[in-house]
Amino acid sequence: MKVTVCFGRTRVVVPCGDGNIKVHTLIQQAVMRYKKAIAKVNQDHEYHREILILCAGGVSLT
């Protein structure tokens, strides 16, 4: 069984085995997965921003 937890527009899927998981544990796992997802998005954004800066000859496009 899986549960989808929404944080605004960001959704994370939390596996909960056969359904015998405490809500507190589910929330902790959802928050952990959300933080990982946000960190990944921020890294991708920073990488693309650096490429734009390099392509623009050092001019910041932020």
TrEMBL record:
The keyword Cell cycle applies. Keywords: Cell cycle, Cell division, Repeat. One of its GO terms (biological process) is establishment of cell polarity. Residues 1-43 form the Par3/HAL N-terminal domain. The keyword Cell division applies. GO terms for molecular function: phosphatidylinositol binding. GO terms for cellular component: adherens junction; apical junction complex; apical plasma membrane; cell cortex. It comes from the Eukaryota. This is Par3/HAL N-terminal domain-containing protein. The lineage of its organism: Eukaryota, Metazoa, Chordata, Craniata, Vertebrata.
